[in-house]
Amino acid sequence: MKRYAVLHAPDFRLQSILRHAPHLNDRPVALLDSQGQKPGVMEFNALALAAGVEMGMTPTQATARSPGLQLLTENSGHERSAQEALLQTAETISPFLEATAPGIITIEWPPEKPVDVPWLTSAILNPLQLIGLAVHIGIADNPDLALMASRFANPVEIVDNPALFLDPLPVHVLQPSEEIRGVLHAWGIHTVGELTALPMRQVCERLGPEAVALWDRAMGGSPRPLDLVKPREFFAEEADLENPIEMLEPLLFLLRKFLEQIMVRLALVYLVAGKFRLVLRFENGAPYRRVFTIPQPTRDVNLLFRMLHTHLENFTSESPVIGLELAARPVRSSEEQFGLLEKGIRDPYQFAETLARLQALLGRDQVGTPELEASHHPDAVHLRPFDVHALPSSSDAPLIGIPCLRFRPVIPAEVILEEAQPAFLYSERTTGPIRETEGPWLLEGSWWERNHWSREEWDIATDDGVYRLVRTDEDWFLDGVYA
Amino acid sequence: MAPASDKVLYLRQLLAERFKEASLPSQEIYATGLPVLDEIGIPRGALTELIPSVPRSSGGPLLFYAVLHAVLQKGERAVLIDGKNSFAPSGISSTHLNRLLWVRCHRAWEAIKAADLAIRDGNIPLVIILLSTNSPGELRKIPAPSWHRLQLLAEKSAVTVLAFTPQAQVGCARLRISVDGDFPLKKLHLARTNLLPSLHLHVARRRLGQERSTDEAIRRAACA
Fold first, then answer.
1. Cross-chain Cβ contact B192/A400 below 8 Å
2. ipTM of this predicted structure
């Protein structure tokens, strides 16, 4: 028979915020519901409860009860991250998951997994505790009963006998309507056991069709199919900021916290970060997105933080940051052994940082490995990111002639022709008679496209050197120097 | 020459301990794979300057492409700091380009800053600074201490630095090689292997590591 487990994070919205604010752990804290017309206390911690804070109190009432009370508002970014973390931890148990509600995950329990408190503590409770989430676990034969068990768990409730578990519970856990609750109260029925002791048929006749469903729940409910979900591929932490960030330091502080959380989550599933995606949202304008490729996948917070720091040192924006997301793409950690004669990069992290600094100095499109394009244009080349793992090639083609050093941009020139041959050159680089010429070589390409090009190339020798001279339409220019 | 006194020997030892990077043995040779250069011996962890013997055509670009090709062909990685964005990748066999990091600069000062970062990093054992097409006026504006810093960084990180300049520029270079050759138009289209024997390299200056170390250490001590 199938079994189900429910992970239930009580006060989930508050927990999702507090996991990023450990300094509030020893203070009374309450979360306000800002959706309604009047903000009221929605969730609070044990210290606030001890001080007399109650559900639904206005901020004024709550702070009157507890003067040191820290009032917080909801943060949907933190909630999404925490829900994702719950799902990813649950996935280590089983791939059949349902995101039942915020802070509630239902798992179809695999038969091969043990169901005992020590195992559940080490496999679920402790890992989630590390990422700042306290959960209760309910295990039963159907999802609804498991959910009910999780609400009364401390922190684990395993229901082997539904009647034994349900009988002492107050009848309101079955969620009857106000009307039925009133009738049951009038009958003197206060617990589930008292309800199920009554004859079912007569109860249903008197209370109507709703009582049938109520009775079913009172008997432990029946199995239902799960609405399966799959956790995202990325391990992400995100936040919507109450106070926009204008300076680098607070942004780095938050990112460091995010990194630490993500690395703990990755460690729980024995993965390492292969890539990073940073998203910054601003008050005005489009969000900034950047993907970082990690030279050697790792979980080292300091190394990864240095990478972010180096990049953000040179980053500026016109408006302050109001939200951020940091997501890691997990990969399996791999052991690499170089070949006998192959030489690797000594410190790939340092090298990645150097590349980032070079890109910051010169621009991202100015640093990389050259790659020739499939074109006959003499200067058809682009840069692609440098690959530290690129292997040397043994093949080699014979090289012909002296390659030139190009002038970029080209140097405009004036040329005097004699018998259709360049005879005298005026240019910023060199001026004088042309002693020897070879050419012309006529080149043309992309004639079927808008960026059609054609050029006439000459190799010329002056008193000053050997140059490549090019004519396009009626313009002459020096394209490079050979020697 | 009279033998150094005990005090001088003690002073040398003291300086060597205090300024370790200034007293690194630097007689190691970096093998480029290009016989014409390897015969001279390019010092590892030092700055070598390559200049044309005369301002006019003497094969500087040919040597530059040849050494880069030889290094990449050996399976080494190299950083090319291109001072005027003048490198033409078609001059190297395309199968070897994947081991080359091309850093495209547009001004000499950018090239010096980029070289500083690449040498300091130390992960890639060869850094080539190509300044052949930068104007002499621009190069003269590079302060001598900048070159000196690159030299010290190269020693510290054991990176071999080849600087191609249009004229003698790097006062602190451990080795200066002048490149000579005659390459008229008609030779432009010969096979590269047939052209290389026409290159003639001469050592214009060689500074020994130990001498430099002592000089350097004494100069530093004086400054301190």
1. yes
2. 0.82
